[in-house]
Design goal:
The complex is a heterodimer. Chain A starts with 6 loop residues before the first strand and ends with a helix. Chain A has a five-stranded antiparallel beta sheet with strand order 4-5-10-6-7. Helices cover 35% and strands 27% of the residues of chain A. By secondary structure, chain A is an alpha+beta fold. In chain A, α11 crosses α12. Chain A has three domains: 47 residues, Uridine Diphospho-n-acetylenolpyruvylglucosamine Reductase, domain 2 (2-Layer Sandwich), CATH 3.30.43; 111 residues, 2-Layer Sandwich (Uridine Diphospho-n-acetylenolpyruvylglucosamine Reductase, domain 3); 106 residues, Enolase-like, domain 1. Chain B has two domains: 76 residues, Ubiquitin-like (UB roll) (Roll); 69 residues, [2Fe-2S]-binding domain (DNA polymerase, domain 1, Orthogonal Bundle). Chain B contains five helices and five strands. In chain B, α2 packs across α5. Classes of the chains: A alpha+beta, B alpha+beta. At the A-B interface, β1, α2 and α6 of A face β4 of B.
Chain lengths: 287, 169
Amino acid sequence: MIPGRFTYHRPNSVGEAVKLLADLGEEARPLAGGHSLIPMMKLRLAQPEHLVDLGRIGGLKGVRSEGADIVLGAMTTQAEILDSALLREKAPILQEAAQVIADPQVRYQGTIGGNVANGDPGNDMPGLMLCLDARYTLTGGKGNRQVAARDFYEAAFFTKLQPGEILTEIRFAAPTAGHGWAYEKLKRKIGDYAVAAAAVVLTMSGGKCSGASIALTNVAQTPLLAVDAAKALVDTAVDAGAIDAAAKAAIAISDPTTDTRGPVEYRRSVLGVMVRRAIARAKSRAR
Amino acid sequence: MSNPAKTRVTINVNGKDMSAEVEPRTLLIHFLRENLNLTGPHIGCETTHCGACTVDLDGRSVKSCTLFAVQAEGSKVVTIEGMAAADGSLHPLQAAFAEHHGLQCGFCTPGMITRAYRLLQENPTPTDEEIRFGIAGNICRCTGYQNIVKAIRSAAQVMAGQPRKEAAE
């Protein structure tokens, strides 16, 4: 399988990349790790006339702490996320999720920026970003703007990212010290997208849940923030009854389609299991 | 920088700078196989699943069917052809795959070995579970995984008894 012809551009700075994208118009696509785009190009489902390779732009990589925030450069790979000592200490849920994305080779190439910007409902990181209430920095010809992950996703492959803009940075407040966390995903095999997956972050205080955030992956056209599911946990001991209510609330907002991963009823049922397991594990990790 | 037709790429492959005129759409696997005649990396699924095309790129295992040659400009690539020593003696992984029957049809073997090479650089003493997780991006359709894991475990032991060799890095 050979992709269609395109012209290749390798800018050295974000400014140069944004200018190229603006000048070349809608037939140009930025190239990050390429592990969504290149397979699509090989199938000729994508035929951009220009590729703007972000791979050599310094400063778009790395994980850092900035005040109370954790900041991820868009070109940070999933493998680099798994290696980050900062994330291991402050936000290990990212590593639990990165670990179940694709396979080792893909994780060396695939980037966090590409994963969240592509708008693919099968991707795992967007749901996580909803859970963590992350903000994305979008850089265009007129400079930077910030969009909350919770507002970013409009439909499958449709996001707030405008032509000519590049998602350059992701930032979120580090979860409270001692928080419990879990990313639970069922997939048919290595490399497959989730049948359903759930991200849970919660804090326990004096035996009761003082705060919770839950998001769902691949059970609708966009990742979903499960507000009522999280509410069902707050001010409870996160006992069986609360977990049951949360799972039911998550299922209620899901809207999966029947596909090769199974019929709607099955995927909803699996979602409930994922939510229950993620809550239980998050609770067991909370201090 | 605009490349409407062909562009020259230079990639260090198995220790030598190799150069060719390629279209931007030329995949790294095609550059290796067709321009350099290195047919060790195989084309299997072409959809980033099977790992038969795995090569080492700047210290990472990559599927060379999912990377354009132009993206690898200036990089260092190691293929299965670069694993044996200059005198032809096999790399401990190659020897272990032969000894433990870590291959049946052999189609997946170049990818398995180049992937296992990087895995052992990163984790010289992996458990069987870590080996299985580490080669999860490589598929053997003969399903001979048991002996592949055995071969990698054995090679790790052999390599631990030898000075660490950073081949072609």
